[in-house]
Amino acid sequence: MTARADRLRPIGAVPGQKRRSLPERAGIGLKPEHLQEILDTAPDIGFFEIHAENYMVDGGPFHHYLTRIRERYPLSIHGVGLSIGGEDALDERHLDRLAVLLDRYQPESFSEHLAWSSHGGTFLNDLLPVPYHAATLARVCEHIDRVQDRLKRRMLLENPATYVEFAASTMAEPDFIGEVVRRSGCGLLLDVNNVYVSSINHGRDQRAAVSAMPLAAVGQIHLAGFAEDTDAAGASLLIDSHGAPVAEAVWDLYRYALDRLGPMPTLIERDNDIPPLPVLLAEAQQAERIMKRLSPIASREAVA
Known about the structure:
Layout: E1 26-29, H1 35-41, E2 47-51, H2 61-70, E3 75-78, H3 92-105, E4 109-113, E5 116-119, E6 122-128, H4 134-151, E7 156-158, H5 173-184, E8 187-191, H6 192-202, H7 206-212, E9 218-223, E10 227-230, E11 236-239, H8 248-261, E12 266-268, H9 277-292, H10 296-303
Parallel strand pairs: 1-2, 1-12, 2-3, 3-4, 4-7, 7-8, 8-9, 9-12
Antiparallel strand pairs: 5-6, 10-11
């Protein structure tokens, strides 16, 4: 299996038109609670992101609002249901619906998770981890190849938040992701909160975990909040909850990542306990202030 990105249509590109990409700014997830307010106030925001599965219908109010918002703003579409890491073949009907959605809105970015969520025809409403070994590597690359061939786009693969590790794993997560990127030609959606959560849960150095990722392939960053819990042994356990503001420790790790990447399209994720729109916009502004303090040329040279 070899890298195939050179024969794939870039994210959001249309034949005969200039390639589009997300701006090096901060964006937020598009939530029903904020749709009318966004149209009424036209906030100064870099982009919006939607979950693909919420829009896999022909019509309705979500499409009404998204069509109008898309006329004004760049768009990222984030999938949660392809089950890239699953043992089953990809659901071709789901992939077809996804292709229709992407063709309709021509997003600047499309991404999915390194996880599985379906097995034996049963869909589980969760993003479950995979062991990092040769069989999983081959399967994930095969699935990504199929997605990119069908969509004619280079997708971004998001690193997961994990709470357990597999004894069967033979590769470290950054090495596994780096090999997926090399073989499939996909890009990386670097979820900084997920790196932090996984590092704390497994007792790893969070900065080393960021540095070990294939940073040259990063096309977007995610930031989110986490919750604190305890595991069965009573030890501290962080949960990627998307229900709280970005923690200061995650902001610090974000600064560290940007020192190596330069400014990057950055999404503030909030899927639970949705706050008023100005609260999310303020977090996006904080990300942009951090980006503006960087030296892009020096930062990008650090990745090369």
